[in-house]
Design brief:
Number of helices: 5
Helix content: 25-40%
Radius of gyration: 21 Å
CATH superfamily of the largest domain: Nucleic acid-binding proteins
Strand content: 15-25%
Number of strands: 3
CATH architecture of the largest domain: Beta Barrel
CATH class of the largest domain: Mainly Beta
Strand order of the largest sheet: 1-2-3
Structural class: alpha+beta
Shape: elongated
Length: about 110
C-alpha cells in the first residue's frame, strides 16, 4: 500500500493562503483511499450518556450522595489529565463541552 502522506493536496485547495483547506482536502483524500481498502472505523463503542449528560444529571449531588448512589454508565471522550495514586487513579474526561473527574480502583478494573 502506498504512503498517503506523500501525496500532495489538490491544486485548488493548495492555493488557499491559510493552508487549512489544503490540509482538510488531503485528509479527505486519504480517508477515501482507506475506505477503498478497509473499513475506516472498524471499532464501535456504544455509549449510554455523553459526558455533558452525566455532568448535568449528577452535578447537584455531593460526594456522599454520589457514593451512596454509585451510578454506572458508558461514555466516551478525551482524557485530559491522568493522576495515578498507587492502586487507584483519577482522570479527567471531556466531550468538548463538559468535563468529569473519574476515580478508578485497580481492584475494580484489574491490571
Amino acid at each position: 500500500m502506498k504512503d498517503l502522506r506523500d501525496e500532495p493536496a489538490s491544486v485548488e485547495a493548495s492555493s488557499d493562503s491559510s493552508g487549512e483547506a489544503a490540509l482538510i482536502q488531503n485528509r479527505l483524500h486519504n480517508l477515501d483511499e482507506i475506505r477503498r481498502v478497509a473499513d475506516a472505523y472498524p471499532f464501535r463503542f456504544d455509549i449510554r450518556e455523553t459526558v455533558s449528560e452525566i455532568v448535568g444529571k449528577y452535578e447537584s449531588l455531593n460526594a456522599d450522595e454520589l457514593a451512596a448512589e454509585k451510578p454506572t454508565t458508558a461514555t466516551a471522550g478525551r482524557i485530559l489529565g491522568l493522576r495515578l495514586q498507587g492502586k487507584a487513579g483519577f482522570f479527567d474526561l471531556s466531550d468538548g463541552r463538559s468535563r468529569v473527574q473519574v476515580y478508578v480502583r485497580q481492584e475494580a478494573v484489574g491490571e
